[in-house]
Amino acid sequence: MTAETYDVVVIGAGPVGENVADRVVQGGLSVAIVERELVGGECSYWACMPTKALLRSSAALRAVRSLPGAREAVTGDLDVEAVLRRRDAFASNWKDDGQVAWLESAGIPLYRGHGRITGGRSVEVTGEDGAKTTLTARRAVVVATGSSALVPDIDGLRAAAPWTSRETVAAKEVPGRLVIIGGGVVASEMATAFASLGASVEMLARDGVLHMQEPFVGERVSEALREAGVKVHVGAEAGAVRRDGDGTVHITLTTGEEIEADELLVAIGRTPNTNDIGLETVGLKPGSWLTVDDAMRVVADDDQPAADPWLYAIGDVNRRVLLTHQGKYQARALGDAIVARAKGETVDVTAWGRHASTADERAVPQVVFTEPEMAAVGLTAAAAEAAGLRIRVIDYDLAATAGSSLHAEGYEGHARMVVDEDRKVIVGFTLVGPDVAELLHAATIAIVGEVPLDRLWHAVPAFPTVSEVWLRLLEAYGR
Ligand SMILES: Cc1cc2nc3c(=O)[nH]c(=O)nc-3n(C[C@H](O)[C@H](O)[C@H](O)COP(=O)(O)OP(=O)(O)OC[C@H]3O[C@@H](n4cnc5c(N)ncnc54)[C@H](O)[C@@H]3O)c2cc1C
Ligand SMILES: NC(=O)c1ccc[n+]([C@@H]2O[C@H](COP(=O)([O-])OP(=O)(O)OC[C@H]3O[C@@H](n4cnc5c(N)ncnc54)[C@H](O)[C@@H]3O)[C@@H](O)[C@H]2O)c1
Fold first, then answer.
1. Could you tell me which of 74, 53, 416 has the C-alpha nearest to residue 219?
2. Scanning 8, 115, 372, 384, which has its CA 20 to 30 A from the CA of 450?
3. Which of 230, 185, 175, 229 is nearest to 203 (CA)?
């Protein structure tokens, strides 16, 4: 047993853990990071990056095929092997040498192994060989252990060895028939990817497709998935699952209908990686999401800090927003706050303050890389109404801009702006359409900056771009 002391100990070297460690070390404190798998976490090897690599080539191909003059230059089909090779490269071939080298260059010692809080301000790291190291934190222990795919208790499901997002994203071959349980983000993106790679795909979308977004998103994405050959069963629920000796998976729906597949992907959300991290030593329940206050301190059921404030949780594990960019935003704020406290400076976690993560509640941007893409930030109309806001909703047909008509033949898309009528500012913005991802940041800035609509009239979109939708929405709103 060895023992070391640092100012800060971070458990989990995913994108969020890496970022908080970097911030702390840049502020002049010492930090150690603990990782049991690959430095870089889910995002680098089994989520954000490799999924987008799986999707990008077919998106580019479809874009070319929508343009006369360019489409004639494309004679072949998607090269599936080349797409999978590019995916492998984006997953760094599931090796973390590059990220380990970055940790070294940043001055962040890495402890490989499973981290467990042992009460006090200590974390015990158990290496693969069973060797134990105790890391004591002078100022803070930060839990950034992320989340894993949730597998529900469906009769026979676990025994049938279903794919989660991990096996799907890292697949070495494209299955002939892929059935997906779920209609959320992973399900929609993977249905898009695997249909384009040649699989016959069926989705069991119990609650609809992308149903947490504005309703027109799910409608347009479902329609496009169907056009791409995906069978979308809205309202369908798996009741039992069985895998045959020959590998065929039989999924019996609650209606009695049976569907067969070569692989079954379960994509119904996430569960926190907190089963075995010593939560019981600080009075918390193992396996639970870690609730945090505005300062990212872990709080107990009574909303009071669970451990005399030294225990923090950021990223997926605190369930605020399960997105890399938002977790990294929390990491920057928390890292700077830990440094500020150490220097005796003021920590400001009031709304939009230097150490607050206010955007988590009001301005979370998300892009879903389906075909067409969906991009949204802030509140949907339904969420704004539920929050008690007096709103006005402005819709516009994206295909009616000069820019979109040039962008692709038969461009179809839609934009919605949700305005808080009492403050005359935008609180929500959603787009669905080809290549709308890069349009989103303008909306994020308008929401975070609380730019008054009167001032937005002076933000003139260039002609002929798809961004002209901003002008059209303002014209529809009226001056
Ligand atoms: C298929 C898929 C696609 C996605 N695509 C996107 C996208 O395009 N854009 C986006 O913003 N988000 C995307 N996400 C979400 C994104 O992956 C997560 O929000 C992000 O990875 C969270 O980062 P994190 O650092 O909190 O956790 P993780 O990335 O899960 O990292 C946590 C790390 O902690 C380690 N760990 C856990 N427990 C311990 C322990 N006890 N001891 C030591 N180490 C431990 C894990 O091994 C892991 O490396 C996607 C998710 C999925 C599943
Ligand atoms: N492009 C991106 O930003 C991106 C891509 C992939 C994943 N992610 C993130 O990863 C997280 C996980 O994604 P996800 O798709 O697993 O979760 P999700 O929350 O997006 O979707 C889960 C879906 O499963 C359905 N569902 C829940 N329980 C069910 C059950 N028992 N049976 C059938 N359906 C059920 C829900 O209604 C929902 O439609 C999300 O929070 C997402 O933000 C982001």
1. 416
2. 372
3. 230
Cβ of 396 below 6 Å from ligand 2: no
Q: Can you state the percent helix, strand and coil of the chain, rounding each to 5?
A: 35, 25, 40
| Number of domains observed in the structure of the chain | 3
Tens of pLDDT, residue by residue over 277-315, are 999 999 999 999 999 999 999 999 998 888 778 999 999
Is the CB of residue 368 below 6 angstroms from any atom belonging to ligand 2? Answer: yes
Q: 325 CB under 6 A from ligand 1?
A: yes
Q: Is residue 412 part of a domain?
A: yes
Q: Give me Rg for the CA atoms of the chain.
A: 24
Residue 400's domain comprises 372-477
Paired strand residues for 123: 117, 135
What distance in angstroms lies between residue 327's CA and the mean position of ligand 1's atoms? 9
Determine, yes or no, domain membership for 64: no
Cβ(447)–Cβ(363) below 8 Å: yes
Residues 256 and 331 in one domain: no
- Following CA atoms 356, 357, 358, 359 in sequence, which dihedral angle do they give, to the nearest 10 degrees? 150
Q: What is the CATH number of the domain that holds 41?
A: 3.50.50.60
Q: Is residue 367 part of a domain?
A: no
pLDDT tens figures, 130-185: 999 999 999 999 999 999 999 999 999 999 999 999 999 999 999 999 999 999 99
Give the span between the Cα atoms of 446 and 378, in whole angstroms. Answer: 10
Please tell me whether residues 98 and 27 are part of one structural domain: yes
Q: Does residue 366 have its Cβ closer than 6 Å to ligand 2?
A: yes
Residues 467, 471, 472, 473, CA torsion sign: positive
Ligand nearest to the CA of 203: 2
Q: Which of 186, 204, 251 to mutate to test the pocket of ligand 2 (most atoms within 8 A of CB)?
A: 186
Decide: 13 in ligand 1 pocket, CB within 6 A: yes
Any idea which ligand is nearest the CA of 241? 2
Averaged pLDDT score across all residues of the chain = 97
Tell how far the Cα of 96 is from the centroid of ligand 1, in angstroms. Answer: 14
Does residue 120 surpass a pLDDT of 90? no
ipTM: 0.98
Ligand 1 pocket mutation pick from 34, 145, 317 by most atoms within 8 angstroms of CB = 145
- How far apart are the CA of 393 and the centre of ligand 2, in A? 26
Cis ω before 452 (30° cut-off from 0): no
